[in-house]
Write a sequence for this structure.
């Protein structure tokens, strides 16, 4: 009994994957633009990343295109990008809560964790974009 040979990926599947790679590049670019806005502009890195239009558009695109990426190596990139945004929201909310709990005294030290969150954003976007450029999933 002959075993069927492995079928090469269809042109349609390859084209769909290439389209998703482009979308993922655009989303990393939007996040990077928000970071750059925070670095060189009047906004903070954290503020620009969480409230800037480019990052908000990027998260919306993540949710819109996530279903198309399901089952591909790009799914990990979509998860990575979404988690970067929402964990950032969590860390900033905790910092703001700390300021309220300490009746404003936390303003003296809250810049340190917010600075770490800013560095974490930069790390996540750079690491993700580099992995995408190498056509690798995020968690490999």
């Amino acid at each position: 009994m002959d075993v069927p040979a492995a079928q090469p990926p269809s042109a349609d599947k390859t084209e769909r994957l290439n389209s998703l790679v482009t979308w993922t590049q655009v989303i990393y670019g939007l996040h990077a633009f928000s970071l750059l806005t925070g670095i060189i502009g009047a906004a903070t890195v954290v503020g620009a990343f969480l409230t800037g239009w480019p990052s908000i558009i990027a998260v919306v695109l993540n949710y819109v295109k996530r279903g198309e990426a399901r089952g591909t190596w790009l799914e990990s990139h979509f998860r990575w990008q979404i988690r970067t945004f929402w964990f950032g929201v969590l860390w900033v909310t905790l910092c703001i809560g700390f300021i309220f709990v300490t009746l404003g005294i936390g303003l003296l030290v809250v810049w340190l964790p917010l600075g770490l969150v800013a560095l974490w954003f930069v790390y996540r976007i750079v690491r993700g974009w580099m992995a995408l450029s190498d056509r690798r999933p995020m968690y490999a």
